[in-house]
Amino acid sequence: MNHSDCYFQNLNAQLKAQHRAIPCLLLDLDILDQNLDTLKTQLNPQAHLRIVDKSLPSFELIDYIMKKTNTQKIMCFHQPFLTDLATRLDHNADLLLGKPMPIKTARYFYDNLPNLPNQFNPFLQIQWLVDTEKRIIEYINLAAHLNQKIKLNIEIDVGLHRGGFDNIQALRRALHIINANSDKVQFSGLMGYDPHIVKIPAFLRHPKTALQESNRFYAQCQSLVKREFPNLWNTQLTFNGAGSPTFNLHNNDQSPLNDISIGSCLVKPTTFDIPTLKDYQAACFIATPILKKQKNTTIPGIEKFKNILNFINSKNKQSFFIYGGFWQADYHYPKGITQNALFGTSTNQAMLNAAANISLDVDDFVFLRPHQSEFVFLQFGEIISVRNGKLSEKWSLLKNN
Ligand SMILES: Cc1ncc(COP(=O)(O)O)c(C=O)c1O
């Protein structure tokens, strides 16, 4: 038996010994620890690590990573997550929004804050992201309504073209508005996300050129603040950027960033099987039980072609119906199982096929690798951690409404 067989057969045996069998999300903490060790060798020591909540949407998981990496910084993408985090974090945390929140949603957040038992200060400890002059004015009005000063971080477009200020003149106007309202809002820095650097085909723009261009615009924005708005400038400003695909390209003096967001590479779903992340290992798997096993494969409407189908495709020798399916995920173990393309997809009971030599039975579990952790993790209600090959603690997910 190879390593992969041992690993998954051991998990299969343990899952079968549980009190109930439903689709579940497993997270291997030993692999997560290895990924964290790798991260420490690749992160620019001049930059703070900021944990991306949407990619690691469990408080226990975020807390585990915060302790292991000695950071209190989180990038937040969803108001319900923000509210949940505000109730659990203490006065040391620093939350930066990863996307601009509609002003209604920001106001809803403040108007519906529950008790904050750990002294989290929702005015001082949140940096709201603003991407247009209109939104800056909306947030200034919100601060006036709340009678509290709030922090604004400005999104800049460093080449992804997903919004944010993309030229110095427009950024200058935005900074003027913030400066003129410094009794209501405090400028807290810039955010420029740059995954396009490794996503653009190299023949269109080489990653090295894309990185240089992105860093150059970022540095121009920084020097605009420093030169023309000295009273907005201070050493505490957050200059956030990067993400899993690009953070290790920022481990040098040329990087303008002092704050780097990372989430997905720590659990490594399949979308992150990319060259810059080759040193990271997959730590998360979906496991789901087999409900039904059939010899050969029979497709409704074409029953009479069954024998031909089974003859031309050796994979049709066995078929299985699983609990659930149609996740954003790839079938991973046992090797060689595939979803039947003719039967059609099902979120209820997907049909899988396998060759005759694959030994699988009703109640065995099959394993999948999620394409992304964001959203997919939330579909399972909880995370089952694995430590030393044993199913361990159950971790809750961040509140989603
Ligand atoms: C603004 C921003 N920063 C950082 C990230 C990186 O997240 P991850 O490391 O999970 O790819 C994202 C992901 O979408 C993002 O939108």
Provide a quick synopsis of the model.
The longest helix is centred in the middle third of the chain and has 22 residues, at 207-228. The chain has helices spanning 3-16, 29-42, 59-69, 79-88, 103-111, 133-146, 168-180, 196-199, 207-228, 306-312; strands at residues 24-28, 48-52, 73-76, 94-97, 126-130, 150-155, 185-192, 238-241, 259-262, 284-295, 318-322, 329-333, 338-339, 351-354, 365-370, 382-387, 390-396. Strand 3 (73-76), helix 4 (79-88) and strand 4 form a beta-alpha-beta unit.
Report the order of strands and helices.
Answer: HEHEHEHEHEHEHEHHEEEHEEEEEEE
Q: What would you call the shape?
A: elongated
Approximate strand percentage: 15-25%
Strand tally is: 17
Q: Helix and strand layout, with pairings?
A:
Blueprint: H1 3-16, E1 24-28, H2 29-42, E2 48-52, H3 59-69, E3 73-76, H4 79-88, E4 94-97, H5 103-111, E5 126-130, H6 133-146, E6 150-155, H7 168-180, E7 185-192, H8 196-199, H9 207-228, E8 238-241, E9 259-262, E10 284-295, H10 306-312, E11 318-322, E12 329-333, E13 338-339, E14 351-354, E15 365-370, E16 382-387, E17 390-396
Parallel strand pairs: 1-16, 2-3, 2-9, 3-4, 4-5, 5-6, 6-7, 7-8, 8-9
Antiparallel strand pairs: 1-10, 10-11, 10-15, 11-14, 12-15, 13-14, 16-17
Helix pairs in contact: 5-6, 6-7, 7-9
The structure holds pyridoxal-5'-phosphate.
